[in-house]
Amino acid sequence: MLKDVKGNTRLTIQQPTKGCNPNKPSCKDNLTPLTELNYCDVYTGKAEGQQPKHKRHCIYADQHELLPNGMLEGTMFVPTRIDKMVETKVCTPSASNDYKCDKLWKMKSNDENTYVADIEDYTVMVVSSYHRGSISGTSTDHQGFYYECRDKETDKIIGTSKCKAEELKVVKIDCLPFLDCGFKATYKPPRSPNFIGKRSRIGHHVISAEDSSGNETSEFKPGPIFAIPDGDIFRLGKILELAGLDLDGSESNGESLRERGSRVQIQVEYANLYPMTGAHAPGYIYKIVEVPMKEMKTELYTHNQPGSYPEVRTMENRHGIYLQAEVGGSFGFFDIVFLLVMLTTSLALLATGTTLIDVVADYIPGLQVRKDKYQKICRDEDDVQNLEKES
Hints:
Order of helices and strands: EEEHEEEEEEEEEEEEHHEEEEHH
Oligomer: single chain
CATH architecture of the largest domain: Sandwich
CATH topology of the largest domain: atp-gated p2x4 ion channel fold
Shape: elongated
Strand content: 25-35%
């Protein structure tokens, strides 16, 4: 009997680094220069291939500037565009205005369409827990996998929503080779026969990685998805690719995804059944899909207000990708009552099938020769049975 899996998720994000924890004083960022990002207004590279429709002012922002309220749950709003607004207070209720205001604040300046530079290379860590009945644990206990949808003609990755369930391929998430992730490596995902092996080892940035002791190792080229002891790491650009999105494409009303934002759901599908093996250990597969939104934005106070506050205040208009991770799937449990129900149903289906075959053989037009032969055989069998009874 299959029962739904319950659980929780947690998302965190950090800027690209040289294979280290950004909170360490010795850790260096690995951000791409603004002059090499073709969507920035200071880009100096050659205009090769398809270019962004707009080139905007770009800024750097670390993990704390991206999410000033911290990271705790399975939802996260990752800004790709941050517009800073300065407003002045134009009215304070008093006796001179009969304690009435027609307008409280007036816009003084608006730094519109400012992109967060190199946001595609930021990494998102996903951790989840699961429980149902006697089965419980966390994703860090197991080998992870993810679904991938590829175009049949070009073999390019497209959005998972464009593939049927049976067409989705499953890719293994490897632990970094110089780390001990704490789980037993497995080569077969739960409840999915479309396993395609080690496509996860596709590199993007060469970094100087640290081993478990914190010592810098030789240069290593990690894939866009990999595992560490604390969870599964996804490059944000890879999450968007699996959802079929492109920050400088996917235009709507003349605005790119980088300018207007959207919503992406990270589905963590748990299961404990493996085809034709009899194994029943828990495992999980990520499925990343876009939840279409014309615009995803929020307005908020900046955490650092000017010295003239509260007469002058600064606000931020943020557009970006709203990430939402959810636990789902089902675990199979042996249940004697459910087994008896299945056996009873099977016997009823067999009896129905036998009756149906008899009706077809006796009464369907166009089968006269076969019908007569069938009836003769039946009569002969009846005669034999009658003779046996008489003897």
